[in-house]
């Protein structure tokens, strides 16, 4: 059985081989995630529990609608809306035939490109309820899907209100004061609101009965609207010149003013070719312009998503949505173009500008138009009301807004979201207070355009990433169509109304941020997010461009590989190194001895990184020994030019590790790493022996330097409390000791190691939680004699030359480092002290005649020397948060006395750092600072 391997009794931050889980636990994991048979049964099925449900009879799942009833009819009716009988004349009369045709062309090109994107997405997998929201959320991810879904929900609400307002306007023109048929309905702002409420409530009743009734109703209504439209075409060709009275609500013209209808006339056509914008008598005389007419036009043809909104009721969404939507778009485009031509041929501009219901008196049977308007607007509003309720239901099922919308899911009866329908009805009531159809139309257009923009963006992104699983059955689209659709919607949003467009985009971004920060949705990881595909695409490209041969010391940054044994015991160190990385690569490495790969190991480590809230990658490797595993990690961690240049380990000592997951006062406390009562990430307990010996540990240190990597050993980080450091007035300093106590010399304390150590100290001092601390550099001097010697055995060592304080200050200034310099003279005043340091010089140089060096007497002297150095360090560390100390290079592995030297080396370092604050022993091998620009 594999055993967990520990290097550090204190922090357990050396490479590890964690204990292999017992077979019973492995079996429990297997039962948790299911057998192969279970997986095979789920492949290719529509989404349900855990993303899948079994295939079944569509009748049992509520999927009863076909292409014509479920897509073509709702889309065609939604695209006719209030526009076909009420506002086409308004557009032609103000914009002229040429501009009207241009606007229809622009609108339908945008629609066509968007439909292509919808078709591509909807034929790339199973589409569930929620329509466009479902497509966008499963493509762009939770944040964008939730925000766009919310705005699309609002767009359907506004669209429903617009259709109801148009329906009420038609009722007033027919049965209100001065109506064409009767005058038994009173008029006025609140009377109109009352009638809108009655219509809205009747739609509510239909929706509560269910979508099947709506589908049957929509087919019938489409037949009625088609008959009425044909009667209108015939009337244009058959009716001769006549006089049309001014509507009572038009106060821009004097009472008694009559309007004319010429019938087919070349002069009338010539007068209607070009724009002559007037005033809108339904909006208090506001001046009409291109943006107004296009906003009204586009609001009338925004129904291309009506079929996608019914995706939850369609038998075959991936087949019905493309064919039904495209055929409906083609049908309505032809109908609108013919209608615009006939209006321009027969009706003067003044008539179309001052009577939006002129089609009624010119029809050979006027009630036809009344029936057409009422049925078209009613069906459009019904479609939008059902669509909005389905989107709201989908948002609540996905828990995009957490548990706040759970009552909507609970309020579903026989597949019909009763509560969602009622909420949609209430919001429509609020929008109806605006009153003016043309004003509502602009808001409606902008919101729908934003959802179309997101749909094109989703399709464009997934197409550009080249994801292998993006294989839609619908082939008539490219990234060009997606891009044109995206740019077209974005531009026309601002053309229609810059204020509404800006507000909608700002609202969308705020929703994106809010969902990213606060959404507790748990299914987002199962959906997939295009952001991951895009990031992969871009990261791969830039990694290839990041050439390690072009690295420059000016832009050096630490690339950290932290070797961790037990994550439970090293939480403060993991957190500290996250601060120290300064935007560089941070890899947490872990070694397991053996070849039994635990498939859940990587998931647990990713959860650990999430729990620690650090910006780090994890690397787990299996090897026959810890040393071999560390070599694997150093060589293979990172990619391209992003490879670790600094290796960090915990210190090898005998202290009992502290479990920060279970300590009551620990900021890292959690119960989230216990499965079936057995804790993840085992930790060495009292009495248990280490799984790595001192020789292997020192061998790893030697290997790191041999591989030209910077080395850091961390001790006492179980004492680190960042919150206390931030609040405490006692902790004031970050200390740097740029002197090799194994071989002290002061000709120039700023060698490569010292500069690297100083660079790390400066980096940590840049962060907000560490910025209030003062950086201190200790200058260790000898006496003022330049050549005093101490004779020992057969050779002498010259006393160290003084490194002038002024030179040190100049060096710090040239490095742009603001630090206090403190002089330490103890080395100079104690002859015995210097003699002990000489022994260490020989020790670290590993002289060939090292027999005396390894003697017990010399070891005791060396230990005494380290204890005196440690006393100097401790006396000056009372107010220190972190100390950086020069780490002498370890003995070489090929030395004949390596075993003894390794033990002495660790003993000396242990004495050196005893009872210190959190301490980092640093040995740098590369230049990391630059004094020139």
UniProtKB/TrEMBL annotation:
Keywords: Membrane, Transmembrane, Transmembrane helix, Transport. It is found in: Membrane. GO terms for cellular component: membrane. The keyword Cell cycle does not apply. The keyword Membrane applies. Residues 572-652 form the SLC12A transporter C-terminal domain. The chain crosses the membrane at residues 68-92, 104-127, 148-171, 191-214, 219-239, 290-309, 321-344, 364-387, 418-440, 446-464, 476-494, 500-518. InterPro entries: AA-permease/SLC12A_dom, SLC12_C, SLC12A_fam. Its main location: membrane. Residues 76-561 form the Amino acid permease/ SLC12A domain. One of its GO terms (biological process) is potassium ion homeostasis. One of its GO terms (molecular function) is potassium:chloride symporter activity. It is a multi-pass membrane protein. Belongs to the SLC12A transporter family. This is Solute carrier family 12 member 9. It comes from Glossina fuscipes. The lineage of its organism: Eukaryota, Metazoa, Ecdysozoa, Arthropoda, Hexapoda.
């Amino acid at each position: 059985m594999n055993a967990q391997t520990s290097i550090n009794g204190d922090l357990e931050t050396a490479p590890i081989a964690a204990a292999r889980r017992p077979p019973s636990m492995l079996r429990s994991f297997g039962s948790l995630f299911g057998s192969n048979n279970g997986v095979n049964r789920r492949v290719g099925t529509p989404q349900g529990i855990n993303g899948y449900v079994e295939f079944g009879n569509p009748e049992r799942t509520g999927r009863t609608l076909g292409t014509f009833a479920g897509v073509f009819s709702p889309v065609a009716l939604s695209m006719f809306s209030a526009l076909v009988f009420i506002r086409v004349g308004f557009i032609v009369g103000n914009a002229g035939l040429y501009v009207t045709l241009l606007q229809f062309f622009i609108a339908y090109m945008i629609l066509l490109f968007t439909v292509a994107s919808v078709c591509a997405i909807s034929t790339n997998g199973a589409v569930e309820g929620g329509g466009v929201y479902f497509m966008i959320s499963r493509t762009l991810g939770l944040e964008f899907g939730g925000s766009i879904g919310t705005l699309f929900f609002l767009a359907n609400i506004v669209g429903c209100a617009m259709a109801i307002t148009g329906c009420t306007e038609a009722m007033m023109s027919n049965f209100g004061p001065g109506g064409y048929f009767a005058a038994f309905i009173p008029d006025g702002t609140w009377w109109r609101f009352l009638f809108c409420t009655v219509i809205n409530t009747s739609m509510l009743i239909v929706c509560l009965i269910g979508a099947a009734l709506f589908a049957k109703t929509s087919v019938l209504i489409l037949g009625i609207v088609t008959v009425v439209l044909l009667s209108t075409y015939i009337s244009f060709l058959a009716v001769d010149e006549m006089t049309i009275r001014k509507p009572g609500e038009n106060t821009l013209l004097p009472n008694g003013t009559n309007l004319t209808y010429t019938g087919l006339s070349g002069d009338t056509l010539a007068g209607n070719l070009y724009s002559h914008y007037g005033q809108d008598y339904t909006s208090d005389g506001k001046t009409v312009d291109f943006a107004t007419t296009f906003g009204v036009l586009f609001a009338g043809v925004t129904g291309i998503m009506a079929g996608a909104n019914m995706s939850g009721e369609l038998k075959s969404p991936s087949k019905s949505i493309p064919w039904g939507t495209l055929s409906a778009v083609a049908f309505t485009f032809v109908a609108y173009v013919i209608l615009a031509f006939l209006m321009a041929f027969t009706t003067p501009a003044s008539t179309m500008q001052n009577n939006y219901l002129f089609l009624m008196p010119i029809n050979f049977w006027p009630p036809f138009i009344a029936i057409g308007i009422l049925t078209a607007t009613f069906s459009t509003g019904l479609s939008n009301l059902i669509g909005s309720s389905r989107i709201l239901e989908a948002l609540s099922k996905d828990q995009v807004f957490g548990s706040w919308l759970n009552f909507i899911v609970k309020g579903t009866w026989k597949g019909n979201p009763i509560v969602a329908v009622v909420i949609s009805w209430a919001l429509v009531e609020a929008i109806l207070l605006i009153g003016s159809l043309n004003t509502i139309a602009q808001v409606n257009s902008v919101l729908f355009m934003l959802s179309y923009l997101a749909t094109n963006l989703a399709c464009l992104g997934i197409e550009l990433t080249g994801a292998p699983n993006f294989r839609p059955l619908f082939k008539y689209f490219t990234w060009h169509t997606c891009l044109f659709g995206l740019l077209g919607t974005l531009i026309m949003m601002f053309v229609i109304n810059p204020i509404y467009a800006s507000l909608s985009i700002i609202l969308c971004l705020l929703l994106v941020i809010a969902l990213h920060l606060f959404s507790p949705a748990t299914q987002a990881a199962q959906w997939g997010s295009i952001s991951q595909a895009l990031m992969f695409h871009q990261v791969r490209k830039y990694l290839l461009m990041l050439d390690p041969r072009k690295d420059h010391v000016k832009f050096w940054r630490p690339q950290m590989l932290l070797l961790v044994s037990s994550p439970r015991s090293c939480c403060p160190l993991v957190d500290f190194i996250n601060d120290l990385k300064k935007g560089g690569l941070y890899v947490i490495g872990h070694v397991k001895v053996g070849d039994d790969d635990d498939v859940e190991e990587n998931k647990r480590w990713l959860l650990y990184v999430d729990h620690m809230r650090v910006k780090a990658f994890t690397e787990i490797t299996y090897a026959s020994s810890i040393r071999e595993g560390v070599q694997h990690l150093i060589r293979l961690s990172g990619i391209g030019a992003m490879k670790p240049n600094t290796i960090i380990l915990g210190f090898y000592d005998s202290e009992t590790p502290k479990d920060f997951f279970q300590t009551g006062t620990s900021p890292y406390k959690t119960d989230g790493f216990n499965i079936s009562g057995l804790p993840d990430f085992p930790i060495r307990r009292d009495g248990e022996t280490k799984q790595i010996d001192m020789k292997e540990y020192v061998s790893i240190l030697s290997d790191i330097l041999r591989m030209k990597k910077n080395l850091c050993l961390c001790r006492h980080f179980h004492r680190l409390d960042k919150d206390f450091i931030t609040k405490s007035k006692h902790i004031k300093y970050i200390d740097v000791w740029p002197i090799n106590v194994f071989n002290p010399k002061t000709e120039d304390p700023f060698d490569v190691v010292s500069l690297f150590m100083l660079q790390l100290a400066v980096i940590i001092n840049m962060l907000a939680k560490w910025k209030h601390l003062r950086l201190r550099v200790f200058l260790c001097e000898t006496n003022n004699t330049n050549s005093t010697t101490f004779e020992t055995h057969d050779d002498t060592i010259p006393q160290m030359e003084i490194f002038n304080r002024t030179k040190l200050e100049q060096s710090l200034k040239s490095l742009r480092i603001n630090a206090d310099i403190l002089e330490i003279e103890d080395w100079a005043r104690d002859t015995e002290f210097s003699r002990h340091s000489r022994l260490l010089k020989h020790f670290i140089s590993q002289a060939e005649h090292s027999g005396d060096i390894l003697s017990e007497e010399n070891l005791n002297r060396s230990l005494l020397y380290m204890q005196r150095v440690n006393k100097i360090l401790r006396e000056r560390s009372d107010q220190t948060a972190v100390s950086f100390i020069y780490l002498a290079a370890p003995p070489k592995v090929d030395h004949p006395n390596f075993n003894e030297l390794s033990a002495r080396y660790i003993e000396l370092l242990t004495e050196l750092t005893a009872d210190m604050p959190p301490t980092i022993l640093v040995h740098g091998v590369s230049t990391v600072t630059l004094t020139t620009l």
